[in-house]
Amino acid sequence: MDLDDLDRALLLALLERPRVGLREHARALGIARGTAQARFLRLQERGVIVGFEPQVDPEALGYDVTAFVTLHITQGRLDAVAEHLATIPEVVEAHSITGDGDLWARVVARTNAHLEHVVQGIIGTPGVERTRTEIALTERVAHRVLPLVRALPRGARPRT
């Protein structure tokens, strides 16, 4: 699937003003609401647009500590460990990685003591050989994709 100028413009509009409805975006782009809806659905079906949940700041919920945990996993246990991590509410993200370690997890906690409790639970997971935990001090660049969409060359081909 090629992203044409209209797809790119719709993505930019959705990212720049996510609370505005498709009708208003269509009006701003000078296209029919049905066209905007069809493009939106096509982008969604192709996996370009994913998720509809609001972004929630863990700090606002009382999770003031963010840490990055690198896990070293027993060979053949990666999937089982990842499935177990998905059951731990404080594990908000996990990725298979290359380099020093096998899995990387972003963990939130209410306090350092709570973080220690969470990490001890992770260490106790069958297949986890060892971990390394690094506490984040300040978020300098929040998760974002708008600059990527702005930088897309014309006719960019998203993976389908």
Automatic annotation (TrEMBL):
Q: Which InterPro entries match?
A: AsnC-type_HTH_dom (IPR000485), Dimeric_a/b-barrel (IPR011008), Tscrpt_reg_AsnC-like (IPR019888), Tscrpt_reg_AsnC/Lrp_C (IPR019887), WH-like_DNA-bd_sf (IPR036388), WH_DNA-bd_sf (IPR036390)
Source domain of life is Bacteria
Could you list the residue ranges that cross the membrane? none
Q: Does the keyword Transcription apply?
A: yes
HTH asnC-type domain location is 3-64
Q: SMART domains of this UniProt entry?
A: HTH_ASNC
Where does the signal peptide begin and end? none
Q: What keywords does the record list, in alphabetical order? A: DNA-binding, Transcription, Transcription regulation
Q: Does the keyword Transcription regulation apply?
A: yes
* Name recorded for this polypeptide: Lrp/AsnC family transcriptional regulator
